[in-house]
Specification:
single chain, alpha+beta, Endonuclease III, domain 1, four-stranded mixed sheet
């Protein structure tokens, strides 16, 4: 038995390509299936602060105007508001719309009630479902910053009544008691 190699034609066969189809050289020229404007990120388009967060931002502005900042923050803010001295602090600090920002995050002045409300905004919502310490820290620190934020959130979560009642147990189940 001898094996002969068949020569296949390069391209399509006469059965699949009719005489009215043309050569097919430029049939997809200037055809766009997904336009770039459909792929643009529009997550924050038209987002407006409303409700609790709008009130919190208003109080943060008022606190910054009153000078409720810690000494370190007040010094950095003073350098920022003074002449065009570009130090390391002024490169990290900025101000827009009356809000003092540290590395792009809104600085929350030293006000226990205001800090509690900011953490509550991220921890006590039905969507967040009372997350643990590090998840709450991640959610809060996406937009806000203050000195010792991690310590404050740790204390807040460890004293949250609903979190303490619903957190998962990490211990093995207790076995039945046997009489002596």
């Amino acid at each position: 038995m001898l094996h002969f190699r068949r020569k296949f034609s390069s391209g399509v066969t006469t059965l699949s390509w009719g005489p009215d189809h043309g050569k097919g050289a430029s049939d997809n020229k200037d055809v766009v299936l997904l336009r770039p404007e459909l792929l643009a990120i529009r997550a924050l388009k038209g987002v407006q602060m409303e409700g609790l967060e709008k009130n919190i931002l208003k109080e943060i502005r008022q606190g910054n105007q009153r000078g409720d900042q810690e000494e370190l923050v007040a010094k950095a803010a003073k350098e920022l508001w003074q002449a065009a001295s570009k130090t390391v602090c002024s490169a990290e600090w900025s101000e827009e719309e009356g809000l003092l920002r540290f590395r792009g995050k809104i600085y929350v002045p030293r006000n226990a009630d205001l800090q509690r409300r900011v953490v509550s905004l991220c921890h006590d919502t039905k969507v967040a479902e009372h997350p643990r310490r590090w998840k709450t820290l991640e959610l809060v620190s996406r937009d806000y910053w203050w000195l010792q934020i991690s310590r404050y959130i740790g204390q807040y979560v460890s004293t949250c009544d609903l979190y303490l009642r619903t957190k998962p147990t990490r211990q093995a189940p207790v076995s039945e008691l046997h009489p002596l």
